[in-house]
């Protein structure tokens, strides 16, 4: 990994640790880079305004310069304005926490969270969190709708069991991919945190590629039996409508 790649890895880790940030040691652990290397990178990024330390803390967070750069890039890439009404509608109609996530390479990034009226909520997902494809319902929905070759290449280069447990072994993951393709929507039956379930549907770009996902999370008792059918129908309807809206933008 070259210097730019290491800097990008550091920034990605910090983006998933907002708003509280992370220590140098934590960033080193999450990136797999030596701590002295991470410290030098953080100091350099700080000089450019791309990261900063929280006042009175050892934690690093993303800097103001990234906000300014992001504001400029948003004109081209941001679809959250388009997606937000669909996320709000899902939360309102189901009472669950609803999300919109985007694919970035081999990961999904949670962009929007909207909590519903049901008082018991899952806090596994939050805005800014990055997870590998195939982990959580959003990533599973996207992975299942990738072209076969792309899906096989992804599975050949990742090993998810070390961090996410035996439920993410390849044979079990391929079984869930097949189920997702059959139903149209993905189910996470407590595979990350026991008792926290989720369902997701892929959202497609103008080239019919899965670039985003809508998802719902909540407690297990809310995601069984007939409610799965209801939530699946709502997710697929919303995902289809959002795909059409994004397609009209030419994304």
Automatic annotation (TrEMBL):
InterPro entries: GAF-like_dom_sf, HTH_MetabolicPath_Reg, Tscrpt_reg_IclR_C, Tscrpt_reg_IclR_N, WH-like_DNA-bd_sf, WH_DNA-bd_sf. It comes from the Bacteria. Gene3D superfamilies: 3.30.450.40, Winged helix-like DNA-binding domain superfamily/Winged helix DNA-binding domain. Residues 1-64 form the HTH iclR-type domain. It holds the Pfam family HTH_IclR. Keywords: DNA-binding, Transcription, Transcription regulation. This is IclR family transcriptional regulator. SUPFAM superfamilies: GAF domain-like (SSF55781), Winged helix' DNA-binding domain (SSF46785). Residues 65-248 form the IclR-ED domain.
